[in-house]
Amino acid sequence: MSSLLRLATAGSVDDGKSTLVGRLLYDTKSVLADQLDAVTRASVDRGLSTPDLSLLVDGLRSEREQGITIDVAYRYFATPKRSFVLADTPGHVQYTRNTVTGASTAQLAVLLVDARKGVIEQTRRHAAVLALLGVPRLVLAVNKVDLVDYDEETFRVIAKEFTDHATSLGYAEGSVLAIPVSALVGDNVVERSAHTPWYSGPTLLEHLETVPVAPDPHDAPFRFPVQYVIRPRTPEYPDYRGYAGQVAAGTVRPGDEVVVLPAGLRTTVERIDTPDGELAEAAAGRSVTLVLADDLDIARGDVIAAAGSAPVATDELDATLAWLSEKPLRPGARVLVKHGARTVQAFVDELVSRFDEQKLSTVDYPETLQLNEIGRAKVRVAEPLPVDEYEVSRRTGAFLVIDPADGTTLAAGMVGAPLPVLRSDRDVVSPGP
Amino acid sequence: MTTAATDAATDNLAALESEAIHIFREVAGEFDRPVILFSGGKDSTLLLHLAIKAFWPAPVPFPLLHVDTGHNFDEVIAFRDHVVAKYGLRLIVANVQDWIDDGRLTERPDGTRNPLQTQPLLDTITEHKFDAVFGGGRRDEERARAKERIFSLRNAFGQWDPRRQRPELWNLYNGRHRPGEHVRVFPLSNWTEADVWNYIAREKVELPSIYYAHQRKVYKRDGMWLTEGPWGGPRDGEEVKELTVRYRTVGDGSCTGAVESTASTVEEVIAEVMASRLTERGATRADDRLSEAAMEDRKREGYF
User: Fold this and answer.
1) Roughly what angle, to the nearest 10 degrees, separates helices B12-30 and B42-55?
2) Residues A259, A360: Cα–Cα separation, whole Å
3) Partner-chain contact B282 A76, CB within 8 Å
4) HEC profile for A250-310?
5) How many Å lie between the alpha carbon of A3 and the closest alpha carbon of chain B?
6) In sequence order, which residues have a C-beta less than 8 Å from that of residue B237 and are 6 or more positions away?
7) What percent of chain B has pLDDT over 70?
8) Which residues in B lie closer than 8 A to residue A105 (C-beta atoms)?
9) Where in this chain does the record put each Tr-type G domain (chain A) (predicted)?
């Protein structure tokens, strides 16, 4: 069974992102004859002499009409070495929220720049968003190298500027790779280019196939948000009571001592049930049902955690918010917070800082957080939540901010300050007891 | 029995299964009246299989809804009823014929009833006050579907607005909706056709017999092998042949074509699907060929 890599693309408008994704699909033979026929037909209708590969991925009528990508789309392709889920995210400033969406689950991101333009404002913004969301690895695809005569110096300058930027966002140098490509012609995407003899690194696909994917760490403390209580009340299972959920972090085994939060009750795991039989252990990502030794009052939203290293439930979150709504955030806003399987009422106490992704600095105590802005805030929640730092655990450190009136997702919330620049000496953690 | 733990991160199918089960349980936890759209096809059968696993050993806490065009294959209807009886499920059937009979819908000149499913679906959702509707849609099927969220909000008219979709972050699904709105939920979003078949093989999921090679009298129309049925055909000049065929998708008989195939086991089907140069929809669905944005337009109206 091949392994799975979840990746996201990002880049600004017209840098050829759809063409690159189309090229990846086309050159990995992931495009079937009828799809190519449709694209060829549409390209001819538009007066083009060769198939426009961007039409393979721009799925919406208005996208094809405008020649831009509006909404994040998910693509699937596979090679003998690996399967890929690709979140193809739009580059327009007003759609930065889609970059946040794609980045939230990505293990690697491919950022595009146009070789003629180099690193621009939007590149820096996207890199910051990717760093914030904790995407472990970046690839900079320096696209349209054919239009700068495959000039090595141009590529080197762009690669260096970007690597420096990524490093200042917290990336280690080894986790960032720049590749000179032409999506239109196909240079260094899947096939190695004869035009760039000065480039000795891998093609984009070679890199995607071989880059190490860090699995969820098995030795992290166990976390299990209870999604649903399974109580059959059938003649066959009259007294069965199981707690269904997906392991969010760490590993669980029968006999493990656990604590149920927020109540703080202790018990042990008796069994890990699945319809295919009991498991000897279940690791992060696995959906299972836990049967506990004691009959406790546990409901959806509770968290079962390793007894020795349980998180402390808190009613004040020190968090970073990526604001995704046209409606600006002002201190005092009443919102809902969804963390794990629990949704609670909340109140944004204070906006501590706003992040300036160009200057890599913060502005203190801003009056608002506008669409696509990132800031640090104090969020008071009506019931204590057992959160972890986002930097430590992407799953248990993340939450949604939801509009209680219409249900809109307003923000991506991350506990703590995942970017170094957002941390400050002026501590925003609530005063101790 | 204790089975060896598998590493979800390195086992693609296990990861997809865990994700789908997580989605089912989120819906059960957050919504009042969910329903599973069930046509008897492979995707909805897989959906049901995963729902049964998600709530085991308790019964599936949702009913099934079948929008029956009246042009279904007999084998598929028999399979549907067999599955419902086997698992003790509740089945709601919305018959397109009822809507035609009382004048709410008019038969199309081309005889296809696939587009006519939208109104019975929306009417039934309203009548039963369903607030979450599971579908077997996959993002790999079609480029408009590639844009679909796992939780996809529909307004009171059942419409999809791709420009106003909610961002979907991590595995935290936002199911909030206002009265009259509902959410379409797609637990198979991240599965490909190959994943579906490999999982069917691994789990030994039972499917309608027409997915496997069999003898059938068919005639050719618009490049597809259609079978005789109440949808009309063969017309004059359409020659009927007896061929060995199977179906890659199962839908309305008027627009679902058979492919010539001798694949009679799951393993043979997988080999065939892997070697095919056509997508399942390109091979056998006439309704997607109507225009460059046929699927998007139908989804905007409330179709799946």
Assistant:
1) 70
2) 41
3) no
4) CEECCCCEEEEECCCEEEEEEEEECCCCEECCEECCCEEEEEECCCCCCCCCCEEEEHHHC
5) 5
6) none
7) 87
8) 170-171
9) 2-216
Q: Per-residue pLDDT for A27 more than 60?
A: yes
CB-CB neighbors (< 8 A) of A412 in chain B: 167, 169
Give the integer Cα–Cα distance in Å for A328 and A369.
6
Tell me the whole-structure pTM to 2 decimals.
0.90
- For the CA atoms of B168, B152, A64, A17, the dihedral, rounded to the nearest 10 degrees, stands at 20
A365 touches chain B (CB under 8 A): no
The verdict on residue A65 lying in a domain is yes
**Residues on chain B touching A390 (C-beta within 8 angstroms):** none
Helices (H), A88-145: 96-105, 121-132
pLDDT digits (tens, 9 = 90+) for B92-148: 999 999 999 998 988 888 777 878 888 999 999 999 999 999 999 998 887 778 888
Assign A44 to helix, strand or coil: helix
- For A286, the closest of B3, B18, B168 (CB atoms) is B18
Give the residue on B whose Cα is nearest the Cα of A407.
B176
The per-residue pLDDT for B293 is 56
Residue identified by tokens 């994040």 is A72
Which two structure tokens, joined as six digits, stand for A41?
């037909």
SS3 letters for chain B? CEECCCCCCCCHHHHHHHHHHHHHHHHHHHCCCEEEECCCCHHHHHHHHHHHHHHCCCCCCCCEEEEECCCCCHHHHHHHHHHHHHHCCCEEEEEHHHHHHCCCCCCCCCCCCHHHHHHHHHHHHHHHCCCEEECCCCCCCCCCHHHCCCEEEECCCCCCCHHHCCCCECCECCCCCCCCCEEEECCCCCCCHHHHHHHHHHHCCCCCHHHCCEEEEEEEECCEEEECCCCCCCCCCCCEEEEEEECCCCCCCCCECEEECCCCCHHHHHHHHHHCCCCHHHHHECHHHCCCCHHHHHHHHCCC
Residues A252, A123 share a domain: no
Domains of chain B, CATH where assigned: 13-194+293-301 (3.40.50.620), 209-289 (no CATH)
Give pLDDT tens digits for A196-226: 999 999 999 999 999 988 766 667 899 999 9
User: Is residue A286 located within the same domain as residue A317?
Assistant: no
- The mean-pLDDT minimum among A72-76, B50-54, B66-70, B193-197 falls in A72-76
Distance CA A208, CA A79 (A): 10
Q: Is the pLDDT of residue A62 over 60?
A: no
User: Is A94 at the interface with chain B, CB within 8 A?
Assistant: no
Q: Report the residue count for chain B.
A: 304
Average pLDDT of span A147-163? 97
Contact A10, A112 (CB under 8 A): yes
Residue A247 within any structural domain of the chain: yes
Peptide bond into B120 cis (omega under 30): no
User: How many CB atoms are closer than 10 A to CB A197?
Assistant: 9
With tokens 């085994």, the residue in question is A253
Q: Which domain holds residue A297?
A: 223-306
Within a domain: A217: no
| pLDDT above 50 (res B10) | no
Question: What are the tens digits of pLDDT across the range A250-261?
Answer: 999 999 999 999
- Backbone conformation region of residue A254, classed left if phi is above 0, alpha if psi is from -120 to 50, else beta: beta
Indicate whether A22 and A108 sit together in one domain: yes
Q: Which residues of B touch A325 (CB under 8 A)?
A: none
Judge: A32–B17 Cβ closer than 8 Å, yes or no.
no
Residue B143 and residue A57: Cβ atoms within 8 Å? yes
